[in-house]
Amino acid sequence: MAGNQEVTRVLFQDFSAGAVRAFYAVGYAAIAVFLYGVYAQVRKYRRGAPAGVPLNLLPRFGSMLRIVLNHRMIKRRDRQAGEAHRSIFYGFVLLFIGTATITLDYDIMGPLFGVHFWHGDFYLWFSLVLDVAGVLMIWGLLYMMIRRGWIRPPKLDYARPDRAPGDPDYDRSFYAFEDWAFLWTLLTIGVTGYVLEALRLVWLQGDAGVWRTRWWSPVGAALAEGMRQAGLSDTAAGVMRRDLWWFHGLLALVFIALIPFTKVKHIFTAMGSLMFRDLKAAQRLPKEPADAAYPGAQYITDFNWKQLLNLDACTKCGRCHEACPARAVGAPLSPRDVILSLREFANQTLGSADLPPQAQLDVHGKGPGQVAQETLWSCRTCMACVEVCPVAIEHVPIIVKMRRKLVEDGAMDPLLRKTLQTIHKTGNSFGESKRKRAAWTKTLGFPVKDARKEPVDVLWFVGDYASFDPRNQKVTAGFARLLQQAGVDYGILYEGESNAGNDVRRVGEEGLYEVLAEGNITTLSAAHFKRIVTTDPHSYNTIRNEYPDFGGQYEIEHYTTLLLRLMQEGRVPIARQLKSRVTFHDPCHLGRFNKGYDAPREILRLIGCELVEMGRCRANSFCCGAGGGRIWIPDPVGAEKPAQNRMREAARIDGLQVFVVSCPKDLTMFEDALKTSGLEGRFVVRELIELVREALQTEDTAVAQAEA
Amino acid sequence: MKILVAVKQVAALDEDFEIRADGRDVEADFLIHDLNEWDDFSLEEAVRIKEAAGGTPVEIVAVSVGPEQADESLRKCLAKGADRALRVWEESIGGSDSIAIARVLAAVARRESPDLLLAGAQSSDHAFAATGVATAALLDWPHAAVLTQLTVTPGARTARFRRELEGGLLHEMETDLPAVLTIQLGINTPRYASLRAIKQAAAKPIEVLSLGDLSLGAGDVGESGSLSHVRRMFIPEKGRAEMIEGSIEEQARRVIEIIREARGVA
């Protein structure tokens, strides 16, 4: 590449001094507007409460950067959109670095140190890389346009389930306008960049250095060929280039100036949100500060700065909207719209220089930007939204925070109120006497150790549903028999056990949760055991992830991992292969919350079941509708329930025999839904424990029993 | 304005309870205690009067006659909006009938001189429905029972209310204050006392009064101060029923058999 040492790109050639000054003036103005916008946003976030977590900026920055660079989260469940975004992202980043390089050479290193590097081989490679970057960006933008304009996935429709047409904040057409304006602006900047490049080449075709190296800008050079063939002269190209240069330059500067004021700000807010992401956001809810005047969130300023940043990170991609079980059955809740409502509310109230009076900061209600009670109570806290959000928005803690205030004010369904009082009084949600908690053991024919009185290897935390619900008691007794057969040294807490509190906490009754957690921890710390096993995923989650915050550190596992181990050690005498065609429903609190996807599937394989997955499985499992205390709140009459929706999904599997669950609440919800959805007889709902126990019997005993 | 709300901690039976050795009550271990449901409504009514009062100060004082465990119910009252709580207890009060308890409440009312005394129409455990009206009699105050609606304007000297009568009739009445009014279930929707509020109420003091503080003597309460006494508490023997099946002859034969068995002729 000898002889290319001097080659570079013209910048302000033939510009009058006044024009150059004008350009710099506009440039500085754009930067000033940008900086003011950033300041206004930061001022908004600072009006939130302290987050109360250590910042750990460096490791957090590292993990954020990894996610941003590999685009792992944005590709999930929407591969094409993710790939297109990656194209736009890398194109944009390279073009930004390119522009910054020119500034570094021309405005900083040159004037200050007399050093110039933007020429020669470096410049040629630079041209090539940027040409490729432009193609990447334009390809991505075009795909996004096709997606919005023709593919039109339903999740990109901004129709709100929580508002009725005619409500002042029902209309979201501004968002659609903004989406298209964003796409067109970036596309225009990109395309005019190539046209400019081509015009410059035609204009300077007489310059041997420029012309000889033109294929280092392949797109521009090809365009230039076309222009020349169309008869464009060098002088005409020069004139056109000057006008288009201003258009391209001004558009780019306006774009930069508007970043903090438009959806473009997600470049920064999404990175911020990812940086402060809490990997246990839904699994471990935050404690209430002891000195707060009231619990939860009444005003927008009760949210912490991180949550306010979350609101601004949303890009309306609709993944949460699509995953939400409440939204799927027509409840007045979309996690997306909760976030967008609060964002609009925050912008309205916290966006300007002065903070409005407190009465105007109330986020509860039905006014513009407020969140209605029905919306908050529709949430199952199943974590589907948090799990799928590509920018780490933590919807569940935000919703529970608002619920905490509703609970304090008693604004809840009367049945829920009654249940909470019952749990306070009796320690269980069934309103049964504490003494009856272990009544199911009487049918066993062998004693179960009282872990409060003698040391055991395994302490079995049974949970409310498994202890009191008659249908689940059969499963519970079945598990006791399995443990007995396998020779496990285990015991239970008898009436010393209380509701673990997982769902009470997710309802938002933090005070009652504290009573339950502290009570159980006191009982547990008086007992001697090596580890806890539980048949209840809800108890599993709170004991595993939340009890440590209250001083209860335990080794705990869900029964599926213990059972799998026992089977692998040959301690469960499997007598036959069931050969059933089954599907497995991942319980939210076992799967999504705690990533216990594989043990139940492996157990199914060991007992010879043919597992056919539903479309929504593993991390994308569809909540049965019982979470977040919804099991204590009646569902609207006539409307589809999430569990019925799930039954219909399962019914689409050809020849399905068994719908397998591994959670007591799932068993209750799905057996009920199977009947009410009119699918009874098509397949049955069974607890995994029941299938394992079936596999213990030889073919002959099973047949004999079935005939008896 | 001051409203005195009389509340009781009632007992409910746990599963498989046993009768006390003296045969006059259930063994205490088998009882679950809670605030009387009716009293939840009367306290709520007082809190609503206070909330609707605007600028006029209203003080709500909850009072209970009972042992230390009754503090739990008083704390619930404090959590829901009572300003103060009083508990009267001495061992000698045990075994009091409703009239003796009313004597204690009347003494408290004289000490506190409220403008209004609210009580539940009855308690869910003993269901005499007498304590409230007896207190009014002892104070010589007007009274009305089983209210389903109440309107009191703080500062006014009268109260208006409605009572439900048989046959779908409503009684609308007015009374001079001070008065004793007993409240029926459903007059309002009691608010939820969050555990947070109950815990905060634990920090508020509950004033404990003795008979001496109320110028009462041991003879005014307990067995000696009561004219009615519990003789025994028991579970009645369950009747038996048998479904007789078969042909008419078989059925007739079985009936004759049963009659013979009963007469001891077999």
Give keywords.
heterodimer; A: 708 residues; mainly alpha; Fumarate Reductase Iron-sulfur Protein, Chain B, domain 2; Rossmann fold; 4 domains; five-stranded parallel β-sheet; four-stranded parallel β-sheet; 29 helices; 9 strands; elongated; B: 266 residues; alpha/beta; nine-stranded mixed β-sheet; two-stranded antiparallel sheet; 7 helices; 11 strands; 29% helix; globular
Number of domain units of chain A: 4
CATH C-level class of chain B is Alpha Beta
Number of domains of chain B: 1
Low-confidence parts of chain A? none
Query: What percentage of residues of chain A falls in helices of 4 or more residues?
Result: 40-55%
Radius of gyration of chain A: 31 Å
Portion in strands of chain A: under 5%
Instruction: Output mean pLDDT of chain B.
Output: 92
Beta strands of chain B, count: 11
Number of separate strands of chain A = 9
H/E topology pattern of chain B: EEEHEHEHEHEEEEHEHH
Oligomer: heterodimer
Biggest chain contact: A-B, 23 and 14 residues
Global outline of chain B: globular
Q: Radius of gyration of chain B in whole Å, from Cα?
A: 23 Å
Spatial strand order of the main sheet of chain A: 1-3-2-4-5
Please give the order of strands in the largest beta sheet of chain B: 9-8-7-10-6-1-4-5-11
Structural class of chain A: mainly alpha
Straight-line N-to-C gap of chain B: 75 Å
Proper CATH architecture of chain B: 3-Layer(aba) Sandwich
The proportion of residues forming helix of chain B, as a percent range, comes to 25-40%
